[in-house]
Amino acid sequence: MLYRRVLLGLGAAGVGTTSYFLDKSPLTGKRRLILWGENVDIYIGQITSENLHTQYKERILYESSIEHQLVKYLSHSIVQEIPIKRDWNVTVIDDPSVNAFVTPDGSIFVFKGLLDIVDSIDELGFILAHECSHVYLRHSANQLSTRGILSVIVMLFQLWLFGDIYNTSMAENLLIILPMSRKCELEADKYALILESKLGLRLEGASSMMSKLKKYELRTELLSTHPLSDHRVKEIIATTMKLKDETTPHDYEVLRLKIAVATKLFEKYEKIRNKR
Ligand SMILES: [Zn+2]
């Protein structure tokens, strides 16, 4: 009996601690669980990005390469619109994978395979804005915190019910972690479109990019960290319609001056790529 009371006490303490660490999302205004401050995000990000640099060190493109310059200047314009401080930096990896990701300290990694399939600066802008949105919205901290607390709650519950601990990570993933990850992806898409509209990037680039990525995805959303492309395109179109109502075509031309350098670099990159 005492054993169960201790578990109950620990459970209650856990719930109390959890509600203390609820943080407000800057995009949705809703409360979500984050157990630490941004300095921890930066620390985790730095370790992760250092490991990634070691892992890919033979294949990192020179900073003078057109690919690095293009990603650097376009990312630079995007992060000017994000109200957080990070030492944003860019790494382009000479690898055919169609992929890009970011670590919470603001280190952006782009694989050359992704650059090979982009047909406009608007498409590339969407991908980079999406990645930077994950940092601003603190998705990684939210997911890591939830995973940690969830494991403790499930463990206590199992001890209380069965007096033993079983491996339930598959069920936790399917029921909580993966749906949460998919929700974060949709949020990053939404904020990426807001960022794009601030830079005069054409929002159609988002849906054309997603349509291209369709062939690289899993067939079922249930087992995936990302929503299916069709689902994302549907949400992207809905957000695009709303943002377009608020912006005139003239605004887009003026705002596009903010990405003038990156636009020139993209034209140069396309010419070089077509000759290869
Ligand atoms: Zn993402």
UniProtKB/TrEMBL annotation:
Domain Peptidase M48: where? 81-236
Q: Does the keyword Zinc apply?
A: yes
GO aspect biological process, one term: proteolysis involved in protein catabolic process
Tell me the Pfam families matching this sequence: Peptidase_M48
Asked if the record carries the keyword Zinc, the reply is yes
Cofactor stoichiometry and binding remark: Binds 1 zinc ion per subunit.
The cofactor named in the record is: Zn(2+)
InterPro entries assigned: Mito/Outer_Membr_Metalloprot (IPR051156), Peptidase_M48 (IPR001915)
Q: Name one cellular component (GO) term.
A: membrane
- Cite the entry's keywords alphabetically: Hydrolase, Metal-binding, Metalloprotease, Protease, Zinc
| GO molecular function terms noted in the UniProt entry | metal ion binding; metalloendopeptidase activity
- So what family is this one in? Belongs to the peptidase M48 family.
PANTHER family per record: METALLOENDOPEPTIDASE OMA1, METALLOENDOPEPTIDASE OMA1, MITOCHONDRIAL
**Name of the protein in question:** Peptidase M48 domain-containing protein
Q: Say which species the protein is native to.
A: Blepharisma stoltei
